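Treating backbone geometry as a discrete language has practical consequences that deserve illustration. No coordinates are needed to read the tokens, only the vocabulary itself. For completeness, the protein is quoted in full, as a sequence line and a line of structure tokens:
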Amino acid sequence: MSNLHQANASPNIDRHFDAVVIGSGPAGSTAVRELTAAGMDVLLLEAGRELTAKDFTPPVYGKPKPMGMDIMTRAKRMLGSRQFNQARRSFYSDSSSRFLVDDLANPYTYPLDAPYLWVRSRLLGGRMHAYGRVLQRMSDVDFKAASLDGVGIDWPFEYADLAPYYERVEELVGVYGDADPGVKHPPAGKYVGPGHLNEMEQEFKRVVESRWPERHVISWRFQAPFLDRVPPGIREARRTGRLTIRTGAVVSRITTNSRTGLATGAVFIDARTRREHRVTGDVVILCASAIESVRLLLNSGSSRHPGGLANSNGLVGRYLMEQSMTLGFGDDARRPGYFGPSSQCEEDPFYGNSGGFLIPRYQNLQGQTEAYKRGYSFQGLAGRVPVPEDSPAMFGFGAGGEMLPQYGNHVTLSRRVKDKWGIPAAHIVCRPDDNDRTMVAAAVRDVTEMMRVGGYRTNFVASTFGVHSKRVWPDFNPAQRAMFRIGIRMSLMMGVSIHEAGGARMGHDPATSVLNGVAQAWDVPNLFVTDAASFPTGSTEGPALTIMAVTARACDYIARAHAAGELTRPTQDVVL
């Protein structure tokens, strides 16, 4: 793991680069690999630190305990640390908290009537060290959703345009999964090995598919572990010798030429010394994550760009989307204990074995058949969490519902709150609407029915809109149940799915979008935003794999256009 320390030396940044990449998560790590492979000299700016071997010392676990929700551990983390927001995430792991931000140093705001949970990382590799590693493709069900139901705008490309780039990034990171006959959405990918359903999940599959033939229970499609702890894109880019990494670089704004309006580079503040530095490049690729990228665009205003960068139509920050969350948790006394890791998939000594079951979206795929638009999919685990041998096996799954793009859901800059480095904090407004309420009601019904048919005892069913079970955690005492009801409401709010998207959407028309089909800013043709801020609509799938594919496609264009000197005006019709 010696290569973990390569970026900590003081790199030479006092020179002009072909490209400046801001952020090193799924988008940034893909961008540096694609651009350096094309022969470009790239500077990668990351606000956080680089991880060391010590960060990945395998946790020491005591004897398994009966299932619970880590209420006391969470409470201690919320009250006695600087992670009072990060500790509220639903899928909590104390060992992964080290990969999430200090909330006091990185504040944000929201309206009192619209609480939002922003879970994020600042370190080399970003949330690739902290996410669930499920990687699924999107399809034309997502990319052409507006044409199907009339809400929002279509993506400025089709699935066939993105498919080669999906394959490219799947080969880069390594993904386990199955072809899954009969499942068209999400499309299957290129896999390094098969997925895995354990015995309990296979039984759940038989029960559900026999009762509801339209519902397919399949294995997770998930990323293989990178045991050197360096995201594969960054690893490959380093090998070219054309990548310079500057960690501890808190970017405050993107700089532009007052005459041409083109991006010239970025200004960052050293996270430790608070000294300001300026870097320059021919092209700037913004990969900081959806909300953070919007924050930077809005804070990069100038006389040429008074409303913020790339914001001549006022749409930067608009159409923020998340996923509504419905969570069901139970257990199965018929199967005490738990299943060990699968020998089919490479195990990670720090994170443990990955895997579980998925139920892809089955609503509104053949026209509008439900009382709500779009739909939801499920992700779950059965018998995978260690419990005592005589305790019921755990069962839990959640539905992620697609939020419709709404102009009123947006990110702006706070007028009163700044972060540790003096940069205005993000003000986040993300309110669910009636479509979300109707959709969640249907998801609650489906969660409840599938748990009942599967023969599981229900510990609770809850959602973004509250607790739906009359009785929760039958084995808890009254005080524990009361604490749980309070805690679950603090956890299951908008943002908890950690799938935020939108704010600088792509489109065909400069009047209704911020970016074109290769994530190039209409107003600033040498500026690209390739993280989930670029998404015109949401999905029921997680955004990570699509972020990587969109980035790879954009970088394919960037490399060609840079070589030809064609980054001075935006491309209306992109042909790759």
Observations:
- The radius of gyration is 23 Å.
- Confidence is low (pLDDT under 50) at residues 1-8.
- The longest strand covers residues 323-336.
